[in-house]
């Protein structure tokens, strides 16, 4: 090989190495922005939901409060504690409440720290969980826990499962769940070492500790979290727990899927 070619290849290899190291460093130090791309709302923002709603502020004990939307019913069959995905705020996710209201369930949709009108910011996994748990415990002071369903969508599934492993909601529902964020990182960024990931959200660790019934919904056309992760979670869940695979369903807008609504109705009646 010509010496000039050899020097050029060495420079290219060095450039690739430096670029890779910079990318890894960026993923490590800025992963909150990548995993939790928070959207904020001004405190005077006016929501325009069709259904009756109340804004709730829940103190966390850390000098700030979390904000959420409470969709009460005059007469309900139970309450859904809803933890949404990593994008958007309760302004958009609140529309999901209509699906459950039609089936007789009131809903509380929470925004994470730094999202919407919620104060604070996400700094580590344990602090995030404690904040979300404080919101769950607050809801259980409004209504009996025996009537509460913990529901997580996408990012919210790990948090909902961890709550259910330490509390006792009547039912845990996971929509488009991941096995854990380490598995997601291997799936999305196979060349990045997983030790850089500071947020594990280890659904697979919490799920076997959940004593209540668990229902997993996953679309077989999910382009973000593969349905195989839903199947992996079902494999480590209790024998009586269930996985419902929705044909042709992508990652979002599960509420608009007729098969989902029909299956949901059966599940809510039986639990």
Order of helices and strands: HHEEEHHEHEHEHHEHEH
Number of domains: 2
Give the total of beta strands: 8
Question: What is the strand content?
Answer: 15-25%
Globular, elongated, flat, extended or rod-shaped: what is the shape?
Answer: globular
Secondary-structure class: alpha/beta
CATH topology group of the largest domain:
Rossmann fold
Terminal-residue CA separation: 72 Å
Uncertain stretches of 5 or more adjacent residues: none
Count of helix runs: 10
Helix content: 25-40%
- CATH architecture annotation of the largest domain: 3-Layer(aba) Sandwich
What characterizes the major β-sheet?
Answer: 8 strands, mixed
List the SSEs and their pairings.
Blueprint: H1 3-29, H2 31-35, E1 54-59, E2 65-71, E3 78-83, H3 90-93, H4 97-101, E4 105-110, H5 125-142, E5 148-153, H6 155-166, E6 171-175, H7 181-188, H8 203-206, E7 214-219, H9 227-236, E8 242-246, H10 258-270
Parallel strand pairs: 3-4, 3-5, 5-6, 6-7, 7-8
Antiparallel strand pairs: 1-2, 2-4
Structural description of this entry:
This protein has 271 residues and is α/β, with parallel strands linked by helices. The protein folds into two domains: 1-35; 38-270, Alpha/Beta hydrolase fold, catalytic domain (Rossmann fold, 3-Layer(aba) Sandwich). It is built from ten helices and eight strands. It has helices at 3-29, 31-35, 90-93, 97-101, 125-142, 155-166, 181-188, 203-206, 227-236, 258-270, and strands at 54-59, 65-71, 78-83, 105-110, 148-153, 171-175, 214-219, 242-246. The chain has an eight-stranded mixed beta sheet, with helices on both faces. The longest helix has 27 residues, at 3-29. The radius of gyration is 21 Å and the shape is globular.
């Amino acid at each position: 090989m010509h010496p000039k070619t050899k020097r050029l290849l060495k420079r290219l290899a060095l450039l690739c190495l430096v670029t890779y190291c910079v990318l890894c460093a960026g993923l490590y130090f800025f992963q909150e922005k990548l995993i939790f791309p928070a959207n904020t709302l001004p405190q005077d923002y006016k929501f325009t939901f069709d259904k009756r709603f109340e804004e709730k502020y829940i103190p966390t004990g850390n000098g700030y409060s979390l904000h959420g939307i409470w969709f009460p019913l005059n007469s309900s069959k139970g309450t859904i504690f809803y933890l949404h995905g990593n994008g958007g705020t309760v302004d958009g996710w609140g529309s999901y409440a209509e699906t459950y209201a039609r089936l007789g369930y009131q809903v509380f949709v929470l925004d994470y720290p730094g999202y919407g009108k919620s104060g604070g910011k996400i700094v580590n996994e344990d602090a995030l969980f404690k904040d979300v748990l404080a919101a769950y415990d607050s809801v259980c002071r409004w209504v009996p826990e025996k009537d509460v369903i913990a529901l997580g969508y996408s990012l919210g599934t790990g948090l909902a499962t961890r709550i259910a492993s330490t509390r006792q909601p009547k039912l845990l529902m996971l929509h488009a769940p991941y096995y854990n964020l380490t598995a997601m990182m291997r799936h999305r960024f196979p060349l990045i070492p997983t030790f850089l990931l500071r947020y594990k959200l280890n659904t697979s660790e919490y799920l076997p500790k959940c004593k209540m019934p668990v229902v997993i919904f996953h679309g077989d056309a999910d382009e973000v979290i593969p349905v195989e992760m839903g199947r992996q979670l079902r494999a480590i869940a209790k024998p009586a727990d269930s996985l419902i695979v929705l044909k042709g369903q992508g990652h979002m807008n599960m509420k608009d899927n007729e098969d989902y609504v029909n299956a949901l109705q059966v599940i809510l009646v039986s639990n």
